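Lecture 7 notes: from sequence to structure.

We start with a single chain of 174 residues. Read the sequence below before looking at the structure.
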Amino acid sequence: MKVGKNLILLCFLGGCNWLPYAVKNVYSTPEEKIQECMFRHRLQKIARTTFQRIQQEQPTNYSRAYAKGFEDGFVDFVDRNGSGDPLAIPPQCYQRDVVRSPEGQVEIEDWYSGFRHGVTAARVSGLRERVIVPIGLPPRLSIEPTNAEVVPGQMGEEAVPLQIMPTPVAPETQ
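Now the structure, written as tokens:
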């Protein structure tokens, strides 16, 4: 009982500066992760729909690995600003012992081909440009002097703008 009271007292001795962080960790962070997961799910759905449309337009018998690669490439390009290059190694599901066979190698190559195709389809769709959140530009430094930077001349001469000189650096002593 005494330990519990001391623990509660110790928590409040730190002040209230930890409280906003605790609230953020408990409520905001999981909500952000849920929103991110929902967004990726929507992108996967769009990728599947796009792949189905491509299959209808060009009736080709694509493998399941190709379809998975297409979806991964599409989502990677749109969500993670992918460069269009596939990962250096295939996903974990293609690295298992079961697929280290000639058929498994074909599945890996299909995944890579599908990934590249998905990136191309995402690039053509223009979805990446619609997903990017615009940010404001940082403030630019003024090149023109303001009134506060003008030094009046002597005896009725024109005002001369201040020249900002670099800060001198002390030479290193040896």
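The two ends are 64 Å apart (CA to CA). Keep this in mind for problem set 3.
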